[in-house]
C-alpha cells in the first residue's frame, strides 16, 4: 500500500472493513480453520501508523492483526488465502488468522501470546540500533497487553538502550470480555508509561490523521536517536473477541454509539468530502473497486491449493546442525 | 587472541569458562553481528567469568549489561536475530529461563517453521546440580531438547565448550548452550584448536571391552570414576559423552549397543522424564535384538535439590550407583 494522498488512507480503511466483514461471514460458514479475530472499528490505528512508516520499518503485532497487515501493504489475496490456510497464504497456510507475517517485508509476525509482539519489535529495534540503520520498529499490543509483564520489561529495555522503537497500544477497550478500566491500575496508560521515562501519549485512535501525526513524530525522534515513544490509541472493536462470540459484557447502546458517532471511516469520509479532497463520485468508485478487490481475494483463497502434506515438518530448523 | 592476563598455559589449557571466552572472542572477531547481552557482563565478566574481558576488548556495543528482565532479554535477542544479528543472550542460570519461556518456546523455537525466518540466537546459561538450593538446580534439558526447533549443547570440558560455541555461532538456529556450574574452573587441553565441533557427534572419552556408559556434562566424571573402579574388577567400560542432546548422536548409541549389548545411560536430572528414558526407549526400538538385556538408567531422585551438601550429592548419580548399574548389565 502506497499512501500517496488522503484518499489512499480512506481506501485502505475501506479495504480492511470490507475484508473483515467478508472474512467474518466466511468464518461462520466454516471456511477459516481455527476462527479469526475481527478488527472492524480499529482501522484508523492501523492505517494511521502504517502511513507514517517507511517501507523498511519493522512491525510485530498481536492476535488481532489483519488490519495491521493489510495496512502494512500486504494484499487481501495473500491474507485471505492464509485465513483459509492455503499454500498461497502469506505464511504458507501454517499460520491462519493469528500468524500473518513476512520478515522480508518488515512484518515480524502476528502472535498468539499477549505482549509477545512488543518484545519481538523491541528486539528488532535493538538489531536496527546495532547495525546503525535509519529505520524504526513498531510493536503493537492491545489493552490486554497493558497488564502483562513482558510489555513493560521490553519498554524499559527500549528506554535504557535508546532504541528506535514505538509501542502502539491498539486499545479497543476489551481484553476478550474484560473492560480495560476494571483491570488496569491507574487506568491511564500514558501516565503509567511515562514513569519509564519516555514520551507517552493517549490519543484518539479513531482519527486516522491524529494517529499518523503522533506516529510520524515518534518516528522522527527514533531515527534521530532520541529513543522510544509510547502511544495509546483509543478505539473500539465492533464485533466479538472472536467470530461467533455472543457476549453480554457490553450494551448494544455502547456499540451503537461508537458505530454511529465515532466510526473512523465515517469520520474521515465526512472530513474528505467537506474539505473537497474527495468527491462523492470518487467515493462511489472507491467503494466499488474495494468490493471487487475483496471478492477477488475470496475467489483466490477458494481456488488456492492446500499445503502439501509432505511439507508437514519442513523447516523446523536449518538442518545445518545435522538433525535427522 | 590473548589478553594481558593470559599465559600460554591458560590459552592451551583454559578453564571451562575461559574456553567459552576463547570461542566467543574468535567468533566475534570474524563476525561483527555477534553481540552478548546479559546481567553483570561488562565489569564482572558474568557470574562464572565466562565473558571476562570481552567488553573491554570489543566495547559495550558488543557486550551489554542488561536489567534483570529475562523475557525482554530473550525477546531482545530474538528480535535482533530475526533482523539479521547473532546475539548471545546470557541468562546466567538456566533456572531463570522460566521468566522467558514464552520467548524461548513459543517464539524462538517456532518462528522458522511458522514464517521461514532464521533465528540465529544462542541462549547461554549454567545448569546442573551444585550448591545453592532448589532455585538454581533445575534440569530443563529434556524440555528444551524435546521442543521442535531448539538445539541443545551441554559440553563437559573446555575443548568442547570452545568448539561447540563456535558451531552455535555459525548456524542460523536457536541454540540452548548449557554449561555445568561445577565445571566452570576445570582446566583441560584444547585439542581441536580453532576448529568448531559439530553438534550431534558423541565423543568416546574412555575405551572399553565389556559395556558402555552413555552420559553427558558433569555426570561424565562420575562415570569415569566408576569406570576406574570397575577396571580394578576387570570390567572395561567405554564412557561416551553425547555433548549435544539435540541433535542427538543416535549412531553412537546404536554402535555401543551393537558392540557390547550392555549399556547404561546416566544423567543427573530426575530419572522420571529424563532424556535417559527417551534415549533408551528409542534405541531399544531400533536395536532390541542387539541388546543382551534392558538398558539400565541412572538418574536423579524425584525431589527438588536440597541446599544441604550431603543431600544434594545424594540426589544425583553416585559412583556407587553407576557401578551397581554396570554390574546389573554385566549379569545379562
Report what the structure shows.
The complex is a heterodimer of chains A (324) and B (332). Helix content of chain A is 45%, strand content 10%. Chain A is an alpha/beta fold and 324 residues long. Chain A has a single domain, classed as Rossmann fold. In chain A, helix 1 (6-28) runs antiparallel to helix 11 (264-275) and helix 4 crosses helix 12 (280-303). The longest helix of chain A is centred in the last third of the chain and has 24 residues, at 280-303. By secondary structure, chain B is of the alpha/beta class. Chain B has 2 domains: 8-183, 3-Layer(aba) Sandwich (Rossmann fold), CATH 3.40.50.970; 203-330, Rossmann fold, CATH 3.40.50. The model of chain B has no long low-confidence stretch (mean pLDDT 96). Chains A and B meet through helix 5 and helix 6 of A and helix 4, helix 5 and helix 6 of B.
Topology:
The complex is a heterodimer of chains A (324) and B (332).
Chain A: H1 6-28, H2 43-50, E1 58-60, H3 66-71, H4 76-83, H5 116-131, E2 137-142, H6 149-160, E3 165-171, E4 174-175, E5 178-179, H7 180-183, H8 189-194, E6 200-204, H9 208-223, E7 229-234, H10 252-261, H11 264-275, H12 280-303
Parallel strand pairs in A: 1-2, 2-3, 3-7, 6-7
Antiparallel strand pairs in A: 4-5
Helix pairs in contact in A: 1-2, 1-11, 1-12, 2-9, 4-12, 5-6
Chain B: H1 8-12, H2 16-30, E1 34-38, H3 54-58, E2 63-65, H4 70-83, E3 86-93, H5 101-108, H6 111-115, E4 121-127, H7 141-145, E5 151-153, H8 158-168, E6 174-180, E7 203-206, E8 211-215, H9 219-232, E9 237-241, E10 244-246, H10 250-260, E11 263-270, H11 275-287, E12 296-300, H12 309-314, H13 319-330
Parallel strand pairs in B: 1-2, 1-3, 3-4, 4-6, 5-6, 8-9, 8-11, 11-12
Antiparallel strand pairs in B: 5-10, 7-9
